Amino acid sequence: MTRSFRPAALLALSLLPLLAACGRGGDVLSQRPRAPCPRVALLADAVDLTRYRAGAVPDVGTVEVDARMVGLQARCDYAPREAGLDVTLVVQVTAERGPAAIRAADLPYVVAVTDEAEGRILNRGTDTVTVTFAGNERRTAAQGEQMMIRIPGDVRRAAERVVLVGFQLTPEELAANRRRGAR
């Protein structure tokens, strides 16, 4: 017995791979390769932040919170209309409540895009991550909300930039971190 396919059936079968790709979240015809990423790193001198009770002499007994940036999640995408790279960051923090107990603290941090070759800051922004201590909890972890940074220009040049992240510190806090050294 001879079987014959109708043209409509052949067309439907030939479209199956394209339809399957749509279910995976992409159009086969317009997919681009994965975007390159600049180097994203924590700034060593600014990963620690120790806050003291306002107006008190900095002392072990006046510590409200001792926080540390422990990680970053970063994802890179091409910016719309070939405008550069979009870098999406999420900051991860651990914190310990001090003797001058608090229930929550807003911890400001800085994100800077630098030109490593020339050693200059091209752009910077700030955000905060909130740590909250429940009940008698002494330690906690938190992560910031997603922050998107656009690095404009040629994608290849944008990928050569460096994105640095650290707590926004006063000169005294920075000096204390440098004296204490890495933990």
Task: State Rg.
Answer: 24 Å
The profile of the biggest β sheet is: 5 strands, antiparallel
Run of helices and strands: HEEEEEEEEHEH
Mean pLDDT: 83
Strand content of the residues, in percent? 35-45%
Q: Would you identify the regions where 5 or more consecutive residues have pLDDT less than 50?
A: 1-29
Helicity level: 10-25%
Overall morphology? elongated
Supply the number of helical segments: 3
Q: What is the rounded distance between the termini?
A: 80 Å
- Total beta strand runs: 9
Notable features of this structure?
183 residues, alpha+beta, 3 helices, disordered N terminus
Task: Describe what you observe in this structure.
The longest helix is centred in the first third of the chain and has 17 residues, at 7-23. Strands 2, 3, 4, 7 and 8 form a five-stranded antiparallel β-sheet that branches. This protein has a four-stranded mixed β-sheet with strand order 1-9-5-6, with no helix packed on it. It has helices at 7-23, 155-158, 171-180; strands at residues 39-42, 48-52, 63-78, 84-97, 104-115, 120-132, 139-143, 147-152, 162-167. Helix content is 17%, strand content 44%. The protein has one domain (39-180). It is elongated, with a radius of gyration of 24 Å. A hairpin with a 4-residue loop joins strand 5 and strand 6 (120-132). By secondary structure, the protein is α+β, with helices and mostly antiparallel strands.
